[in-house]
């Protein structure tokens, strides 16, 4: 996800939501700002963002939290190795993530993006379940996505 900026450290502003495939092509995008006034500017921005992640394998230790910019998602324990369950025999994957604060406004986006990426990345036989850690958010249902 990109385009998170804010005039105040405690109040980030989402300027766009990008869901791109592994080649940087649009799966779903939404722009909430006029910072990219033409389709060509939007496509250029999307290719730039895609090139940044394709060089890194999108490791959680490299992804910074927009509300705690000095810390990575790994350091904040948003997703841990223990919070990922894979059952190859039952064709099932569950990710349980913990928002950084109980009033975080991003669990719906985190849940939807995680769900979409897993569906796109895994063989079609897999069922995907993305959940907010029980008791970690004021609206646990917001980030929960499953069939």
From TrEMBL:
Q: Name one GO biological process term.
A: protein maturation
Q: Which InterPro entries match?
A: FSCA_dom_sf (IPR034904), MIP18 (IPR039796)
Query: Which family does the record claim for this protein?
Result: Belongs to the MIP18 family.
What is the name of this protein?
Answer: MIP18 family-like domain-containing protein
Provide the species name.
Thlaspi arvense (Field penny-cress)
